[in-house]
Structures are given as structure tokens and as C-alpha cells.
Amino acid sequence: MGAIGTVAAPAGATAITVTAGATDIVILRGLAFDGGSVNRAGGATTAVAFTSGAKLHVDNCTFFGFAGEAIAFQPSGASSLFVNNTSFRSNNGSVQITPASTGTANASLNGVKFENGYRGVRADDGATVVVRNSIAAGNNPGNGFTALSTGARPAILTIENSTASSNASYGVLSSGSGAVVRINNVTSIDNGLSGVGTLNGGVVYSTGANRFLGNVQGDVAAGTVLTPWTQQ
Hints:
Elements lengths: L4 E4 L5 E6 L5 E5 L1 E4 L11 E7 L2 E5 L2 E3 L6 E3 L4 E12 L5 E3 L6 E12 L5 E3 L3 E6 L2 E3 L7 E4 L6 E11 L6 E4 L3 E11 L6 E4 L3 E4 L4 E3 L12 E3 L4
Parallel strand pairs: 1-4, 2-5, 3-6, 4-7, 5-8, 6-9, 7-9, 8-10, 9-11, 10-12, 11-13, 11-14, 12-15, 13-16, 14-16, 15-17, 16-18, 17-19, 18-20, 18-21, 20-22
């Protein structure tokens, strides 16, 4: 499916800022967001900056050439993000879900590609994120999929039926005392550090139906314990 239209912004700017009402739903569909950068620097800063609203839907879009996050999801209240069949390519960041101290975020990403950027998706404090049927590949210097918590609130990331490959750091990382990652049917291969790892008290739950191979510093990072994720 080709793009219906192209959205561009000048260097250092944000293409779209969403500051909507508490019950408002915003839908972005069939758009190509062009940050204007070929080397992840010097282009537009952000494609979509979300600060308030009930829901943001991003369907069948492409994001490329942004010097910062393609989607910076930073709600001040309780908000949801849905990203489907969308590509993030050559951005200095892809999707970062970072609720404000007064906000919470629930996010669902399905059929998403994070390629040749700084990193793939990142869930921060106050975010609950599910990623399915997605790929994070060739990101440098960051990770494929990351949950990062300062410990103030949990950062919960569930990944199913997805692949992390040839990222410069971890394929999957859970970092911080409130970080929880759950993996099921995940392939993490040929990453520059480990296929899956924990730092600073992060936790990873695994069904055991995952594959790790060819990761430079070990398929499971030293000191990382994969806690069985069993049906409750």
C-alpha cells in the first residue's frame, strides 16, 4: 500500500504535535513522515509528539530520517497508542513511550519494522507495551526492544512472535528495578552484545519457546536469569 500523502518538517522541528482532549481519538493512516535526514542528524527532530488525548492510532505509515524520536508518546493522562503495519527506518530513535509523572500509557504494536535506526521500541516508567509480529534489525548503537525503568513505576514490555537481529547492543533488554520484559516465540540473533539481557535489577520472563543464536557476547547475557513464564 502506497502512502496517501507525505508529512515533512524543517530541521529541528516537530512534524505533528498531538495535544487533544481526554476523550479524543487521533488517527494517522497511510502517511509517509519524512525527516529530511540521511544520516540521522540535522533533520526534523520528531515526527509525532503526543502529550494528551485518549488514543493515538498509527496505521500503514512510514517514518524515516528523523534526528530524534519518530514517535514520542508522552501522555500527561491515561492514554493508549496503537501502531499497525508501520515502518521506522533510519531514525535517531523510533518509538519511545514515556508517560509524564501524571500519566500512564498502554501501547500495542503489531506488524512493525524498526530498521537501521538508533534503536527499536522503548518502554519507560508507567508504560505497558505489547509488541507482536514485529522486527527490530540493524539498529546502532542501541537495542532492538527495551524496557527501561528508574524504579519509580514499572515499565512492562511483552514481545511475541518477533525478531531482533544484528542490533549493535542487545536484542532484548530489561533495565532497572521496575523493568519487566516477557518474551514468547522471540528470535534474537547476531546482536552485538547479547540476545537477551538484564541490567540494574531488570527481569525477563520467558516461555522457553524462544531462540537465541550468534550473539557476540553470549546469547543470554552473563548474570541474566530467564524466569519461566507459565500460564497462571
